[in-house]
Every structure is written in C-alpha cells, then in structure tokens.
Amino acid sequence: MAETKPIKPQPGPQEKFLSSPADIAIYGGAAGGGKTWGLLVEPLRHISNKDFGAVFFRRNTTQIRNEGGLWDESESLYPKVGASPRSHVLQWKFHSGATVTFAHLEHDKTVNSYQGAQIPLICFDELTHFSKKQFFYMLSRNRTTCGIRPYVRATCNPDADSWVADFISWWIDQDTGLAIPERSGVIRWFVKDGDTISWADSPDELSSHTMLDEYGDTVPVPPKSVTFISAKLEDNKILMGSDPSYMSNLMALSAVDRARLKDGNWKVRPSSGLFFKRGWCEVVEQAPAGLKAVRGWDFAATPEDGSNDPDWTCGTKMAKSEDGIYYVLDHVFDRLGPNGVEKMLKNTTSQDGKGVTVDIPQDPGAAGKAQVSTYTKLLAGYSVNSGVVTGDKVTRFAPFSAQAEAGNVKVVRGSWNERWFSELESFPPDTGHDDDTDSTAQAFNGLQKPKVSRAPNVFARQV
Whole-angstrom distance between the N-terminal and C-terminal Cα of the chain? Predict the structure, then answer.
C-alpha cells in the first residue's frame, strides 16, 4: 500500500496563516501564494467534531465551480481524509458528521438567507469581492455551541478601492503600497460601533467600549483580534517548482495588474500612462500578408453641433501573425448621428473587404440586441462577430496593454497614428473620451475568438 503523504503547510506565510490564533486572519496580497490551499486545509483540524461546520463563500456560484477554483481544489484534498462529496449542494461530509459547504453571497441582500445561522468557521475566498456590509453581517453569524471558538479566515489579492485596503492599512506601507514584512502575522484588536472601527494593540485598551443589549442593559463590547499575513508567488515553492511558467504569466500582465498580483501593491490604481506608451510599439510600413484580421468597433450616435462634446464612433483594425505579433492596421473615428454611423460602418467594412471580420459590441438589454441585429443585416455577406460586453473598460483593455508593453504590438504607419497614440496614452482619462481605447480592446479581444477570417492581401500603410 502506498504511503499517504501528510497534509501540512509550506514553511513561511502559509504555515503562519494556519497557526494564527486571531479571530480573523486575512491571507494573501499577491497571486500564487498558496492562498486557496491554505483556506481549504483550515477546517480539517476540526473534522472529528460531529457538530462542526464551515462555510466557504465566493461572490457567485460560477466562481466556486470554475476550473481550478474552490470545488476543484477541494476534490484533490478532502477525499484524502475520507470526506464524501454532495456535488449538487456543494458540500463535503466527513465520517464524524462534520461538514464543509461552499456558498455564494452574490448580492448584499443574500446575507438575509443566513438569519439565525450559527457557523463556527466562516471562510471568504477573495475577500475584496465582498462588500463591507456582507462581511460584518456574516461576522454576526460566526457563533457556535459545538465547543470550537468561532473564527474567520479569508484570502485576497490587492484592490486599492476595496474596503479591505482600509481595514488592513496598518499592515501596509501607505507610501509604497506594499506589505510591511515585520508586521505580517502581528495581531491587533478592534471594536466596531456602527460605522466606526477603533483599533488597539491589545484588548485591554478597548475594554471601555460598551453597548446596549436586547434588555437595555449596558454590556462590554468584546474586541475581535485581526491579523494580515502577506504572501507572494515566491513563498509557494511547490507551485514555483511544478509550474515555472506561472511567473512568466504574471510578468506578462499589464503594469497595473503586475504591480497588484505579482508585487502585492495595495495602492496602485489605473492612471494615464500606466496602460500604454507609444514607445512600446514599433511603427512599420506594412504588415505581412494573410493574417487573421478584425475591425473592432465602439459606437456613439450623437453628432457634434459646436456646443457639445459627444463620444466618438471608432473602428480599429488589427491583425495577428503566427508568431504572436499584433499589427494595428488602421483606425477610423467620427462624430455622427445614427444614420451617419451606419453609413460609416458599411463603407469601412466594404473598404476592408470580406477578409476582415467585423466585431461589434453588444450593450446589455433589448436595445443592444436590436442594434446588433440591425448592423448584422446591414453587413450581409461579411463575417460579423458580436457579444455582450462584460467587465469594466480597464479589464477589457488590459490584455492588449500587456502585449504592447511586452513589445508584441506593431503599428502600420498612417495619418491616424498620432491621434490613436495620444488617446491610448491618456487612458483611463480623468475626464474626456476613451472610445479609441474601447475599439482597440474590441479588436484585440475579437482576435481571440475562434471564428475570425484570414485576409488574403498584404496590409499596406493606410493614410
């Protein structure tokens, strides 16, 4: 019989996380630090207690079931200790009767489903995806009579705009945005009174805080202990050894995402110049022949009348070579009414020819469907792709940004170059327009779709 390897954490942050006595321990700060495994192992110390139950939360069920997500990871771990899955309810049951359940909190009001619940261990995977209201409401459900002190464990990646960034600010250098190494794992105490949180280095310093109980009597507010434990990919020796390419994947991210997910920076935000620089791109006279090509669009429908500053209708044509180089071939833009937009779309598509796929964004709702239907009929005989736009503008543009920074984007020389470069360098704008950026992202992301035509001719300079 093969010897069963013991389940134990890696030395360093993972071990520190799994041995912390804090009421609330938050683990992470970068991608690849072994956060999910550490979270999944936490309940195993209690599985001999028949009355024990843990609930793992993700923001939605899809995130739980995603390949490589919580449920997948649990399937490689929990059967080793004799747990039986109940996949239809996303639950594991252990020999003693103890359970681990996976659930979602998609909306703030979803917490109402847990009124009256008693959960000994609450685990949040990607805490920054949850609202402050959700976290503190579920903290009130963190109670038990099973003999185990109730506690909370959470993982996260940096998000400068999340309430978590403020909650763990003591552990983060506010100048650099990076975790302070000597504070990682240090425990502090807090009391929350309404929206006000008071912090201290010991529970005794918070002993004066009181509240009224349900009988109208004044009672002390017991402080909660908290710690933040930072980890990076370099701390996960197992992943570094089994998948050396993961570091390359992180290095290939856009500058903002690389700072967040590789370096663990809690202060970095999207700002002009971080997502694109013209110096990243070589300007060439023409692109090779026979490339997979897409014209991505971003539509507006308000003409300029001298007193307004409407959005632009923009169309960016892009192609990809077999060696992974992206060629920006052409960019058109204008401010037009609905009829003008249709004429621009039809004329540009005709000039591009049938070898170029047209990629049209679909806004959510009936109006978006109707617009796509109208444009598709207008372009009968041409290859047209469409899809509902998902994610924010920064998320949609980030993959192109990463390729540009890596030197994998070339731009065919044309009179449109200066405007295109300038607009992309100002993304995301504090004020103004991002239509050129949106059409560029639409073209790039359209090239990743399976049904894209190949153009038969050389893409020469367009002026």
Answer: 73
